[in-house]
Amino acid sequence: MEITKLIREKAKEYRDYTAECLSEMVKIPSVSCDEKQVVLKIKELLENAGVKDVRIDGLGNLIARVGKGPKILAIDAHIDTVDTGDESQWATSPFSGLIKDGYVHGRGTVDQEGGAASMITAARILTEMEYGGKYSVYFTFTVMEEDCDGMCWEYLINEEKLVPDFVVITEPTNLGLYRGHRGRMEVELYFKGLSAHGSAPERGKNVIYSGARVALGIEELNENLKTDEFLGKGTITPTLFRTVSPSLCAIPDQARMHIDRRLTWGETGESAVGELKEICGSDVTIEVPEYDRPSYTGTVYKIEKYFPTWKIEGDHPLVQAGLETHRQLFGESPRVDKWTFSTNGVSICGRHGIPCIGFGPGNEVYAHAPNEKVPVEHLEKATAFYALLPWILGH
Ligand SMILES: [Zn+2]
Q: Catalytic positions, please?
C-alpha cells in the first residue's frame, strides 16, 4: 500500500529529527506543575514543523490538530516527568539529552517525552501528506500526569469538550500494544480514641490498638481480593500510620492511616470503600482525599484521588486497527499486554468509557529510574505507527 510505504520512509527520513526534538525537550526540566517551558518548546517545534492548529488550554495542556474529519482520534503524551532522584547514580546528567549509541539519554526519554517526540514527527508527516481522512487527529501534550494521573484529561473532556472516539496513549510499551491496566485509589482512615494518663490505660481508648486491628483486617482482606485473568489481582496495603497524643505518658487519641489500593476488573471506588467500612468501627472516618495542586497556569482543578480500572477487549475495533497498523508497517503482530503502572487511561477509559490503546517507545523498566534512555529505533517506529493509524481506522 502506497500510504504505508510513504509513512515508513518519512519516519525513517525524520529519525534524527525526532531524536533531536526529544533531546531538546529533555534539556528542559519539567516536573509536574512546572511544565511551562517544555510546553512552549513543543509548541515551537510543532509550528516549525508546519502544524497550523496549535493551542494551550487553561490548565496548560498543549493541543495540536491535523485534519478535520468528523470523527476524533486523540494521541496523548504527558510531558511532565518525575524528579531526577540521586544524581550521583546517573552516568551523564539527567538533562543532557545526549544522543549516543542509538539512544537518547536523560530524564523523561522513556516516561514519556519519547512518545511526545514521535507524536511531533507524526503530526509533521500527516501535515505534509495533507491528511484529509475521516478523523480529526488531536495530538495532546498533557500536564501533571505524574502527580495526578488522568486529571489533565478530566479537564480536556469536561472543560475543553474534547471528547474523542478513540485515544492512543503513548506511554512506554516497548512497542507492544496495550489495552488496559489496574486502577488505584488512595484512602485516609482517621481514628478517634480517648486520651488518659499513661499510668492508667484502662481509662482511655488507645488508637494504636484500633489501628492495629484494622491493619490486620486489611492484611486478611488483601488475601481475598479479586483476580482478573488479564489485569491480575487487586491489592490493598497500609503505607503510613501516625498517631497524636498529649504526651509520651498519655494514651494517643488520634491517628491517621494511609492506604494504597490497586483495583482490578470489577472493583470500584465504592466497592473498595465498602470493604473498608466492614473492617473499621464507627470511630473511624474513611476519606478519599482530593488533589488540589495548582497547574503552572495557576488553575486548580480538584479531583478525588480515585483512578478507575480500565481495559478493552482484544477483539475491539481499536485493538484490531492497532494490530493492522503494526502488521502493515513492520510485517508482524505486536505483543498485546497491559501496563503495570497507571496512565491517563484512568480518566479517558476508566471514567468516561472512551476506548484507549497504548503504543509507545521505550522500556518501562527505565521509567523513574536513573540512566533513563530510549532507543532511537523505537522513536522511528512509534512515529510511523501514529501517522498510519488514522488511515487504517478510517478505512
Ligand atoms: Zn508516564
A: 80, 145
